[in-house]
Amino acid sequence: MLKINNLKVSYGGIKALNGISLEIPDGKIVTLIGANGAGKSTTFKAIVGLVKPVSGEIWFKDQNITGLPTNKIIGSGISTVPEGRKVFSDMSVLENLRIGAYLRKDEEGIRRDIDMVFDLFPRLKERHWQQAGTLSGGEQQMLAVGRGLMGHPQLMLMDEPSLGLAPLIVQEIFSIIKKINDEGVTILLIEQNANMALRTADYAYVMETGHITMQGTGRELLAEESIRSAYLGKRRKAKV
User: Fold this and answer.
1) In sequence order, which residues have a C-beta less than 8 Å from that of residue 36 and are 6 or more positions away?
2) What is the tens place of the pLDDT at every residue in 188-212?
3) Domains in the chain, please, with CATH?
4) pTM to 2 decimals?
5) Contact between residue 189 and residue 32 where contact means Cβ atoms under 8 Å apart
6) Which of 6, 17, 96, 227 is the most buried (most CB within 10 A)?
7) Which residues contact residue 7 at a Cβ distance below 8 angstroms, ignoring those fewer than 6 apart?
């Protein structure tokens, strides 16, 4: 569904991506793991047109989307769940969901997808009138995922969906990610929580300083001693 070929991105004189190539097959969950500064979020931003590559190509459904404006890329069937949730804090849950459908004109389909989001996240339905800024961190993450679904995407990009969440909420979020994928949405999951990401993903890439250094199925990388020692021996601080 999405292919990246030899992508290079620089910020000033600093090389953020050094010719990476990866593929996200239709219907799969693919994860990109690595430490802070590895280039994961730059990859995310390059896909959706927030940074311009120096060279290389990004293909989505056989269309070259490299350098297209972000609204065109989103309109082609890609949605995002950005790092830090970035909900509209002074707007209600329902208003946030409707913003996720801003490119759509099918009111009946929008209402149907709002019901679908509320089925996935009953707590959002209970709080549909509540200002997003007053939700807990976990509820805001659920809202960010729900807002991404409102674009009726074929591919969803998720940047650090577990960041700062308590372990039980993390498990709930990853369970929802699996459900979304089971409904036919392809997912690129950018994560520092390597344990949960590799257990969830069909395929995985490891990034270090702008390079892809390893790839394989989630199960294969979980069994790699170098991955276990580098990424699975650390616990992240959690908060609600």
Assistant:
1) 192
2) 999 888 999 999 999 999 999 999 9
3) 2-77+153-231 (3.40.50.300), 89-150 (no CATH)
4) 0.89
5) yes
6) 17
7) 17, 19, 20, 21, 43, 46, 53, 55, 56, 57, 58
